[in-house]
User: Which sequence fits this backbone?
């Protein structure tokens, strides 16, 4: 078995100290609380997002809610797996790039918005929250934002934003909260150009489905070619999950979070380029801990969401259930629990919102606040759901499926009890969190006292340390004697809540005095008194939560005076109730600092470990005996297990995972590949599926270009058709068609329609550009050449969005002809079914400027849900003065069933090699005009038959578009 690195207690402490952020460059509200100060100005007035950020958050949450309504958490619970389509829906919305900056393809939302997203998705099933938070809070995005190079950000962040799931690999079978013992190695090879990873990682959340990994491994000390000695140390790497040598050997199963993709991952001789190292060698733990400053807020967000749900269920059930002539909620025993749930839920959200906004503003150091929020929220969230189960009685213990089977409301209270239990362990157990916070809380004392707290310091050094500390304590101790908390008029602006703030101020000083007494009593032995330190931290958490409640309630009360609602008064009632409950807990914790059974507990625990009470275990059976060792052994080497890794199908095509942002370039296509010899036919999407329809459009446009009195001139259309060499030859001139009357009529009508359509939209886009729309966005641009064949004002940029292979084909053909665009042209290679707004922004699109959008040859191929999603996105990205042009077919369902239409389409499809109607979704009509009007657009409609007449043309084959079916819809903001 590979042994974890042997380290002494002193060495382990040294590793932990080195990973800490040692300085305090910014103020910290919670740090000051532990020092006996109450800097209310750091949190009051309660910080809130800007109106613009709030509106942006609200718009996104509204769209997310629409998606979440269609997700069924019972499916996740039943199958112990999140369906691919759920992940796909979240990815399309941008949920995997919530906090990734827009320049890297993300949404660039705030921490507050991110927290609210996690609350909402976790209410469907907590496994969804775990998926998103493990990816974004500790996975690839956050470490790269913090310490990644610009090249790393551009390579990996767009992939993460599109849905390339990431995981964080730190824990090992024998290494948990003491990473100094880490055994996984990263050995420099190839003269330092790469590293070779070896090791086994346990509890890799998202590891089963991840495409990208953050791996922590120890680099050995070595002498480099530069003549310098490298200390090595624990280092972070971005690793492709499909790298040779990586095997996901297990998918672990747990009492809760049944949809979580958590595994055991083996790395054997996994080569990682040096450019994938995050930060410098030895900085891995520091990067991880700094990442968690804000990342830890994910769990409080999910706990707050659980509190909200518990309050709703508790309220509705307690009003419905009647016992002894009254609703159970009116009985004192249940009323106490309802009060606790309501007040504590308000406090959970207050702590979350305060810490989240502090993280967004960046004015304060929130390392203690985030840790306290995680610790306190996970403990209180667990208590809330435990109380809800008790309120529900037997139904609380019964599964939702069982309740539903006998005809009752399927309330998954027992499931949430199981799901929330892990939060007291995730991302640092409560016990470890207390020690981490305690270390930060006493940092000022350790800095001042120095060797007084060093168990190895001799008397001489301790004496010097005492002299050095005297300056700090002479100035610090006096302020702990008296303060504003003893003045009855202090904090009067908080009205009825002022008494609670006075309590916080008094007890912050009391807490600091207690900490000082403990240090004076135990000195270097202070760290051994973990129960004492834990109570100190719990008191600080209660004081922090009380402060958050009071300042938030006061903010809501002030808003009420402007809005005339009663929400502020209700908030003050909840804050008052919480503070009263919290004061009782705080006073009990203070009493337990000095009146406890800690010494007895330590002696009894040591006797338990020594086997002194083993006789007490007699009379039962332990069926786990003989099933395996307490800790699994592992040896370096190749895996002997089949990999259970899988990928989510993010595009609905059966392919798994995402493509890197430069996937087209990696396939090596260039202008040289565009020889007109059919070379594309075997490989290019342009000759299959919807791509083939784009080719048919080009053929029609080429025929119109060569016709007498052409409505449009497109000198590039013929080149596209000839370069693609489709499986069914397409004519580009009338003489190519032959003598068959049906073929002549069909192709002539196709050419006429493409001429009419192109001319119509050309005029609309040109008018929009002249009116000030400097951004033209072509959705599903296909083989459109407007950037080349139209005259544009110098200020105009044309954005072309389509599949990577379609754009690459077009670019290759155009490059081979040596032409230049008449406008600034930006291609955006995306799948419009997935998230694409980030890529558009990254290409230079500015949502604050007027724009003109064209959806030509697109909407008839989209399901209704996709139509609505697309329109919502366009709405979010447009400002007044913008326009949207849409080609639309009304009555598609009826047209599909029309025998004459189907006969003509079948003939055309036979000639093209594609039945276009097979690509149309079989759904009821989408009310395009009504939808646009309801969402603030001014809409006008021109029918194809009327436009064709205005241009002096006629569609020979009228069955192509039955009267009043084909339409061009124009919308203005």
Assistant:
């Amino acid at each position: 078995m590979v042994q974890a690195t042997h380290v002494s207690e002193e060495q382990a402490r040294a590793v932990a100290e080195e990973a800490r952020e040692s300085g305090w460059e910014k103020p910290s509200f919670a740090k000051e609380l532990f020092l006996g100060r109450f800097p209310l100005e750091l949190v009051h007035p309660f910080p809130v997002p800007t109106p613009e950020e709030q509106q942006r958050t609200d718009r996104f949450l509204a769209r997310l809610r629409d998606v979440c309504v269609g997700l069924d958490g019972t499916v996740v619970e039943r199958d112990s797996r999140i369906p691919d389509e759920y992940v796909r829906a979240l990815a399309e919305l941008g949920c995997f790039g919530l906090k990734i900056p827009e320049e890297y393809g993300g949404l660039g939302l705030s921490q507050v918005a991110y927290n609210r997203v996690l609350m909402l998705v976790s209410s469907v099933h907590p496994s969804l929250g775990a998926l998103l938070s493990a990816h974004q809070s500790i996975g690839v995005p956050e470490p790269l934002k913090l310490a990644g190079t610009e090249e790393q950000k551009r390579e990996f962040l767009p992939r993460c934003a599109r849905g390339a799931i990431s995981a964080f690999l730190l824990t090992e079978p024998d290494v948990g909260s003491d990473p100094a013992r880490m055994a996984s190695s990263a050995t420099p090879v190839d003269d330092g150009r790469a590293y070779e990873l070896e090791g086994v990682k346990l509890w890799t959340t998202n590891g089963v489905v991840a495409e990208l990994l953050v791996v922590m491994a120890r680099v050995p000390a070595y002498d480099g070619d530069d003549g310098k000695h490298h200390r090595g140390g624990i280092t972070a790497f971005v690793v492709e999950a499909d790298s040779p040598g990586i095997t996901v050997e297990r998918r672990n199963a747990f009492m809760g979070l049944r949809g979580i993709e958590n595994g055991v991952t083996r790395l054997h001789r996994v080569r990682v380029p040096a450019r994938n190292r995050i930060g410098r060698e030895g900085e891995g733990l520091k990067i991880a801990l700094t990442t968690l400053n804000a990342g830890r807020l994910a769990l409080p967000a999910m706990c707050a969401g659980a509190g909200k749900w518990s309050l709703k269920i508790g309220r509705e059930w307690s009003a419905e259930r009647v016992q002894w002539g009254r609703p159970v909620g009116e009985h004192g025993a249940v009323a106490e629990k309802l009060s606790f749930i309501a007040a504590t839920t308000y406090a959970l959200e207050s702590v979350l919102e305060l810490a989240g906004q502090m993280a967004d503003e960046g004015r304060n150091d929130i390392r203690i606040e985030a840790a306290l929020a995680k610790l306190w929220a996970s403990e209180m969230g667990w208590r809330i759901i435990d109380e809800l189960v008790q309120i529900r009685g037997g139904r609380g213990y019964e599964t939702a499926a069982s309740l539903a089977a006998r005809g009752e409301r399927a309330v998954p209270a027992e499931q949430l009890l199981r799901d929330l239990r892990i939060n007291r362990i995730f991302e640092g157990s409560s016990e470890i969190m207390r020690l981490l916070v305690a270390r930060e809380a006493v940092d000022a004392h350790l800095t001042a006292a120095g060797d007084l707290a060093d168990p190895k310091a001799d008397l001489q050094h301790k004496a010097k340390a005492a002299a050095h500390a005297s300056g700090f304590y002479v100035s610090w101790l006096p302020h702990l004697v008296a303060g504003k908390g003893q003045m009855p008029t202090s904090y009067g602006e908080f009205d009825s809540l002022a008494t609670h703030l006075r309590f916080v101020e008094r007890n912050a000083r009391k807490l600091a005095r207690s900490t000082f007494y403990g240090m004076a009593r135990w000195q270097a032995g202070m760290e051994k008194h973990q129960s004492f330190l834990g109570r100190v931290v719990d008191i600080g958490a209660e004081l922090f939560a009380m402060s958050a409640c009071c300042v938030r309630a006061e903010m809501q009360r002030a808003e009420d005076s402007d809005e005339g609602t009663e929400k502020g008064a209700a908030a003050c009632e909840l804050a008052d109730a919480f503070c009263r409950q919290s004061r009782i807990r705080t006073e009990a914790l203070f009493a337990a600092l000095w009146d406890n059974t800690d010494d007895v507990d330590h002696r009894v625990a040591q006797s338990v470990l020594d086997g002194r009470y083993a006789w007490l275990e007699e009379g039962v059976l332990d069926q786990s005996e003989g099933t395996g060792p307490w800790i699994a052994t592992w040896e370096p080497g190749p895996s002997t297990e089949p990999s259970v890794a899988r990928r989510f199908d993010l595009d609905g095509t059966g392919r798994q995972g995402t493509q890197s942002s430069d996937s087209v370039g990696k396939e090596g296509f260039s202008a040289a590949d565009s020889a007109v010899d059919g070379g594309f036919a075997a490989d290019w999407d342009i000759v299959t599926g919807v791509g083939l329809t784009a080719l048919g459009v080009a053929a029609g446009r080429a025929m119109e270009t060569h016709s007498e009195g052409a409505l449009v001139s497109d000198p590039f259309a013929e080149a596209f058709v000839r370069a693609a060499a489709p499986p069914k030859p397409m004519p580009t001139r009338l003489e190519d068609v032959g003598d068959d009357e049906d073929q002549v009529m069909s192709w002539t009508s196709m050419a006429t329609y493409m001429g009419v359509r192109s001319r119509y939209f050309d005029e609309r886009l040109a008018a929009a550009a002249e009116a000030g729309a400097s951004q033209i966005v072509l959705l599903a641009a296909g083989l459109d050449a407007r950037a080349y064949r139209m005259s544009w004002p110098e200020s105009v940029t044309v954005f072309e969005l389509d599949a990577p292979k379609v754009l690459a084909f077009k670019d290759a053909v155009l490059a081979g002809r040596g032409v230049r665009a008449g406008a600034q042209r930006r291609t955006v290679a995306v799948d419009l079914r997935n998230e694409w707004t980030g890529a558009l922004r990254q290409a230079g699109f500015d949502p604050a400027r007027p724009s003109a959008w064209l959806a030509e040859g697109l909407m008839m191929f989209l399901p209704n849900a996709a139509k609505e999603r697309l329109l919502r996105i366009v709405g979010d990205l447009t400002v007044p003065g913008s326009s949207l042009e849409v080609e639309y077919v009304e009555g598609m369902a009826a047209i599909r069933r029309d025998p004459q239409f189907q006969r003509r389409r079948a003939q055309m499809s036979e000639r093209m090699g594609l039945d276009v109607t097979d690509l149309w979704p079989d759904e009821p009509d989408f009310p395009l005009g009504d939808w646009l009007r309801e969402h603030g657009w001014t809409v006008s409609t021109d029918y194809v038959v009327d436009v064709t007449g205005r241009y002096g043309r006629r569609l020979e084959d009228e069955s192509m578009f039955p009267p009043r079916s084909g339409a061009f819809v124009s919308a203005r903001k």
